[in-house]
């Protein structure tokens, strides 16, 4: 196991009926609030009214930024930073999924950055300056952004989607009420769970030896998601299903399962290019790519971990290592397919190979997957994985 520091001081307020705590939480930072939200789901499900009621009763001054896009755009970040400067905002309240929270993180930093926020903030990837404090009310179990230091922003003009991270971008307080996720539709519930599983798999398929704590915690979280996703799809208002998916999403990407390992994530590097070029849903892109990536990198190094994944996570009883590994890949693919994920690129609108070369080039340029991945992959490998994702697959 590698050395690590695990210091994630986000104050998590988990559970139902906790919104009355919001005024006190905000008052620790000031009265001028920028309320950031997305395309209207919080208006439709009533959360907006409940939040605004609390703020008005508390005498807060409220400035709003709405319409944050899934795959949030740099233009929206710029608009938010201008609002913060113009109104002397004390604290940002992000109410929504990962996109709203990520956009809020970039706004929080961008308020203190001069000039073009793509060039001077996002494209730099690391931010060590000041930021407006962020409070989140999470409405979708997926990214883990509610308890981590990163945010992912898209630039459609340059066809780039990049993450930026910094100490001061960590939310101060995050409200995690499973009831707020009851209205998430099937497609986003699927995409969110695929994203959680991917974060866990990206950490788990790693070459660092001696990480049994992280490995067994990861397996437990993966089994939790696999158990509860079908229940949440069938019964969207099943509190325990939503609660377990929500808490799993936070723990999958707050350092708990990733610390102590070195190396880089492979499927996220490849998926961010699909989203950058075609604006597809992040979790769905990951579900499509992951089993194909596994099959592509199956070799002597990866075999033992893939076989362990099959046996521990999917309960596959198979003595032969290679057959076990392949059965695990098939189980993952079938799980996504049976729950309704469109499992080929044409089904999400990517029906030509024209951009594969450019996307593969960017995937290797924006990451270190050619050197430090579980099994390093080159540009040609990425193209092969995209090609394998264009048609239905069979792994055994
Ligand atoms: O915009 P609204 O109207 O709110 O609707 C959203 C959006 O259309 C809807 N939604 C959210 N909560 C809902 C709801 N609909 C009904 N009821 C609710 N309670 O769901 C749609 C998707 O929302 P979005 O925030 O885009 O989803 P998600 O949380 O999956 O975030 C995806 C973004 O996060 C990035 C992704 O790349 C993508 O841009 N990621 C961020 C990470 C991080 N900060 O650590 C890590 C991830 O790997 C990921 O890259
Ligand atoms: Zn992700």
Major β-sheet annotation: 6 strands, parallel
Question: How much beta, percentage-wise?
Answer: 5-15%
How many structural domains are formed by the residues?
2
Oligomer class: single chain
Order of helices and strands: EHEHHEHEHHEEEEHHHHHHHHH
CATH superfamily of the largest domain: Dehydroquinate synthase-like - alpha domain
- Which small compounds were modeled alongside the protein? 5,6-dihydroxy-NADP, zinc ion
The gist of it:
This protein is 47% helix and 11% strand. With 396 residues, it is an alpha/beta fold.
Write the layout of secondary structure elements.
Elements: E1 11-14, H1 22-27, E2 32-37, H2 41-44, H3 47-57, E3 61-65, H4 74-87, E4 91-96, H5 98-110, H6 117-120, E5 134-138, E6 150-155, E7 160-165, E8 173-176, H7 186-204, H8 212-234, H9 239-252, H10 267-278, H11 282-297, H12 303-314, H13 321-338, H14 356-365, H15 379-388
Parallel strand pairs: 1-8, 2-3, 2-4, 4-5, 5-8
Antiparallel strand pairs: 6-7
Helix pairs in contact: 4-5, 7-8, 7-9, 7-11, 8-9, 8-12, 10-11, 10-14, 11-13, 11-15, 12-13, 14-15
The structure holds 5,6-dihydroxy-NADP and zinc ion (ZN).
Zinc ion (ZN) binds at residues 143, 195, 198-199, 268, 282.
């Amino acid at each position: 196991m590698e050395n690590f520091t695990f210091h994630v001081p986000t104050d998590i307020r988990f559970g139902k009926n906790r919104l009355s705590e919001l005024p006190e939480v905000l008052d620790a930072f000031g009265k001028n609030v920028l309320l950031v939200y997305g395309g209207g789901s919080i208006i439709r499900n009533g959360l907006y009214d409940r939040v605004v009621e609390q703020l008005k009763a508390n005498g807060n001054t409220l400035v709003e930024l709405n319409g944050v896009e899934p795959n949030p755009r740099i233009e929206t970040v710029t608009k938010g930073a201008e609002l913060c400067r113009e109104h002397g905002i004390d604290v940002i309240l992000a109410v929504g999924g990962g996109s709203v929270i990520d956009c809020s993180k970039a706004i929080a930093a961008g308020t203190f950055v001069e000039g073009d926020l793509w060039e001077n903030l996002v494209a730099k990837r690391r931010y060590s300056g000041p930021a407006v404090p962020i409070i989140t009310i999470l409405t979708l179990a997926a990214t883990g952004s509610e308890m981590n230091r990163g945010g992912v922003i898209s630039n459609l003009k340059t066809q780039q989607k990049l993450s930026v991270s910094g100490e001061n971008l960590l939310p101060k307080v995050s409200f995690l009420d499973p009831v707020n996720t009851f209205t998430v539709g099937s497609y986003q519930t699927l995409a969110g769970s695929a994203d959680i599983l991917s974060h866990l798999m990206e950490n788990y398929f790693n070459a660092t030896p001696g990480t049994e704590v992280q490995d067994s915690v990861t397996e437990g979280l993966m089994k939790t998601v696999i158990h509860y996703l079908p229940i949440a799809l069938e019964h969207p208002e099943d509190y325990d299903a939503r609660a377990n998916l929500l808490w799993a999403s936070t723990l999958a990407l707050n350092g708990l399962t990733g610390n102590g390992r070195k190396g880089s994530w492979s499927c996220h590097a490849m998926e961010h290019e699909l989203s950058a070029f075609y604006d597809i849903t992040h979790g769905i892109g990951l579900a499509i790519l992951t089993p194909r990536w596994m099959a592509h990198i199956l070799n002597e190094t990866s075999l033992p971990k893939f076989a362990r994944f099959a046996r521990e996570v999917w309960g596959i009883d198979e003595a032969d290592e290679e057959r076990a590994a392949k059965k695990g890949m098939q189980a993952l693919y079938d799980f996504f397919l049976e729950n309704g994920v469109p499992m080929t690129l044409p089904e999400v609108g990517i029906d030509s190979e024209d951009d594969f070369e450019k996307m593969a080039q960017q995937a290797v340029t924006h990451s270190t997957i050619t050197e430090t991945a579980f099994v390093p992959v080159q540009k040609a490998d990425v193209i092969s994985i995209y090609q394998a994702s264009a048609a239905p697959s069979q792994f055994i």
